[in-house]
Amino acid sequence: MQFDKELDARGLSCPLPILKTKKALADLTSGQVLKVTATDPGSIKDMQAFANQTGNPLLETSEENKDYVFYLKKK
Fold first, then answer.
1. Does an H or E element contain 21, and which?
2. Which residues lie below 8 Å from residue 25, measured CB to CB, with a gap of 6+?
3. How many independent structural domains does the chain possess?
4. Model-level pTM?
5. 46 phi/psi in degrees, rounded to 5
6. How many angstroms separate the CA atoms of 53 and 32, rounded?
7. CA dihedral 10, 11, 15, 17 (to 10 degrees)
């Protein structure tokens, strides 16, 4: 999937991946896509909840070599 900005949140635990995601999304314009890579298993539920609460669609979630990869689109 194509993305406009990438955030490496590996090694961070809750709530840091979400806080950094929120900050990274603030730098994007509407319609741009942010790729987030995290290692915290809790980030799966957290990213979905974050997307639902903020209205920024979670386009895709995957797991690659124990990393969790998320693609969020700025509303």
1. helix 16-26
2. 34, 54, 56, 72, 74
3. 1
4. 0.95
5. -60, -45
6. 18
7. -10
Domain that includes residue 55, residue range: 5-73
**What parts of the chain have a pLDDT lower than 70?**
none
Token pair 């209205």 is at which residue? 55
Asked if 15 and 42 touch (Cβ cutoff 8 Å), the reply is no
**Residue linked to tokens 């999937």:** 1
User: In whole angstroms, what is the distance from residue 45 CA to residue 27 CA?
Assistant: 23
CATH (domain of 18): 3.30.110.40
Count CA within 13 A, CB hemisphere, residue 34: 28
Query: In the numeric block, which tokens belong to residue 2?
Result: 């194509």
**Cβ neighbour number for residue 6 with a 10 Å cutoff:** 12
The string of DSSP letters for 59-73 reads EEEEEETTEEEEEEE
CB 72 within 8 A of CB 57: yes
Active site positions, annotated = 14
